[in-house]
Design brief:
Elements (H helix, E strand, L loop, with lengths): L1 E3 L3 H14 L6 H24 L8 H9 L2 H27 L6 E5 L3 E6 L3 E5 L4 E5 L3 E6 L2 E7 L5 H11 L7 E3 L21 E8 L2 H34 L10 H30 L6 E7 L2 E5 L5 E5 L3 E6 L3 E6 L3 E6 L6 H11 L4
Helix pairs in contact: 1-4, 2-3, 2-4, 6-7
């Protein structure tokens, strides 16, 4: 059997890779270009006024504005990478402290790739929803609704890499990202020590109604919008500076342009998605709206209708709220799981389980 492990540095590298390809860092190049362009326009105009004798010295407002224009680039190119690395390292440490084992047996099946550890099994089907990434440092197999399987080059042999690469040929070409050929290290990983499986405490399968799922989707869209709002405001400000009046004495004329750009961003990032929610919910079948939530002493399992399953460690749960129609579990400071209260046989029992698993009693 093949065994693979994942250390802290490799986990952080994986999180940074996905952030560059699909996360907040994917816009770093366009943001850098726009910021530098705004810096040059404002700085150039200030120098032009000074050299042409319009002002006895460079306009301090234009100078300050030029450097303020670099803030979005500094945020995306310096602050975000530092913050993401710190968060990924802390998440790895929390996972290990919670008892999660990153060492597991790798099995390549004709239709899926599976990694089974002493505490959890991750399985990713090889279909059109799956994404395969290969770099010199790792191979990644991931899909929406399923945990990613990360195979560090350190743990791979050429035979293992060929088997995974061959299996990945079943994935559509558009879902494959070949950045570099993996440099197989061939390190022999010892099998993990036997551990007791986490104790299962609560299982419930339920089907959202169209109305309930509409409420869920609206809540998720609004959460996503508010997380993005600072960046949208920066984009609107940069657009107003770039396309507005650079004359510092007429800087107030840019405020209407800022408002217009911001309204356009709100339209495409909030209003239009909210208008489509009801239609999307009504178009889904009962099968698509059915899921299973399973709680054990280590984590929350969420099994999706198309066979995918993801999980959340209890240490990553931030809050649990009892809403009018739902119990909302907020995790990782940015995502929520909604369980309809009508599908919970005993709220007091669930409350006791949550408090036990979160160490509140």
């Amino acid at each position: 059997p093949w065994y693979v492990d994942l250390n802290k540095e490799e986990f952080v590298a994986f999180r940074m890779l996905t952030a560059r390809l699909f996360g907040p860092l994917r816009q770093r190049i366009p943001t850098l270009v726009v910021s530098i362009l705004c810096f040059l326009v404002l700085g150039g105009y200030g120098i032009y006024e000074w050299q042409s004798g319009v002002t006895p010295y460079p306009d301090p407002v234009l100078v300050v504005g030029a450097f303020l224009a670099l803030i979005p680039a500094l945020i995306l190119c310096i602050y975000f990478p530092w913050r993401l690395k710190a968060q990924a390292g802390k998440q790895y440490d929390r996972s290990v402290q919670a008892g999660m084992d990153f060492c597991g047996e790798l099995v390549v099946y004709p239709d899926c790739i599976q990694k089974e550890s002493a505490t959890i099994t991750a399985s990713v089907r090889l279909d059109e929803r799956t994404l395969f990434i290969e770099t010199a440092e790792m191979m990644v197999i991931t899909a929406i609704g399923s945990p990613a399987i990360v195979l560090p080059a350190r743990c791979l042999t050429e035979e293992m890499a060929r088997a995974v690469r061959q299996a990945a040929e079943q994935i559509p070409p558009r879902n494959r990202r070949f950045i570099a050929r993996v440099k197989a290290g061939g390190e022999v990983v010892a099998p993990p020590a036997p551990k007791a499986k986490p104790e299962e405490l609560w299982v419930q399968t339920f089907t959202y109604t169209a109305e309930e799922y509409t409420v869920v989707l609206k809540g998720l869209i609004q959460q996503h919008f508010w997380r993005m709002s600072p960046m949208l405001a920066l984009v609107a400000m940069m657009g107003a500076i770039l396309f507005g009046n650079a004359d510092v004495t007429k800087i107030a004329e840019n405020i209407p342009l800022f408002v217009v750009i911001m309204l356009v961003l709100v339209l495409f990032n909030l209003v239009l998605p909210l208008r489509r929610v009801k239609t999307q919910a009504e178009s889904l079948s009962a099968h698509d709206l059915t899921m299973q939530v399973r709680l054990d002493t280590m984590m929350i399992h969420n099994k999706l209708p198309k066979g995918g399953e993801n999980w959340v460690l209890w240490c990553d749960v931030d809050h649990v709220y009892e809403r009018e129609e739902f119990v909302e579990i907020v995790h990782n400071k940015k995502a929520s799981l909604f369980i309809p209260k009508r599908c919970i046989p005993n709220l007091n029992e669930l409350d006791a389980i949550v408090k036990r698993c979160r160490g509140e009693q």
